[in-house]
């Protein structure tokens, strides 16, 4: 009799036992089990692909940030030939002769002295009284006010009606001459001027100035003592003349 293989005997016994105890699933359960098996295979394939992508990217990690692209420098605007403005930016250095006067205006210590507003030859623009001011002193600022005084019947005085500030600078060395300002009750007189200051001016012309001999000259001297004054129009009447005038009436 041929000797039986012990391993074969154990395998046959396990198969017989499994056949007797295994219960096959119902027929209607078989499609659901197949669907679950397909989903598990799909998920496993997606995870495997993600892992491969991550491994491919590993050599690029740790190499630092990408080199930024240098920005293209902006081109400065070039003013037209008709413009009074100069290009902005770093100013050239001032000359040692550039000073500030006691009244806060540019002062050239080479003998030119204090710089005040002036009109150009055509009387159409306001310019520095020293043409080379901003070439010599690029950081200088020349302030002035365009002011108008008119008669006020309640105050019984010439009062400040209008004040508009200006600055001449290296970037804007000239400005158009301001347009004349109209005042109410101009038949009673009017004072209009450019005054070289950035400080407030008196709100009214004092009565003693108005009643001085030669009130026009006295008014100009009064303003000029406060700050350099470039007159447009000065037409001042004494108090008694204003009160007795037939044309100087409230509007």
Question: How would you describe what is shown here?
Answer:
The protein is an alpha+beta fold and about 250 residues long. It has a domain at about 100-240. The chain has helices spanning about 5-20, 30-55, 135, 205-210, 215-225, 240-245; strands spanning about 100, 105-110, 115, 115-120, 125-130, 140-150, 155-170, 175, 190-195, 230-235. The protein has a four-stranded antiparallel beta sheet, covered by helices on one side. Strands 1-2-3 form a three-stranded antiparallel beta sheet, with no helix packed on it. A three-stranded antiparallel beta sheet has the order 4-5-8, with no helix packed on it. The longest helix is centred in the N-terminal third of the chain and has 28 residues, at about 30-55. Residues about 55-80 have low confidence and may be disordered.
Offer a concise description of the structure.
The protein has six helices and ten strands; from the N terminus they run ααβββββαββββααβα. The chain is of the alpha+beta class and about 250 residues long.
Tell me the radius of gyration. Answer: 48 Å
What best-fitting shape do the alpha-carbon axes yield?
Answer: elongated
Low-confidence stretches: 57-82
Approximate strand percentage: 15-25%
Give, in order, the helices and strands: HHEEEEEHEEEEHHEH
Largest sheet: 4 strands, antiparallel
* Helical content class: 25-40%
- Major β-sheet strand ordering: 7-6-9-10
In total, the number of strands is 10
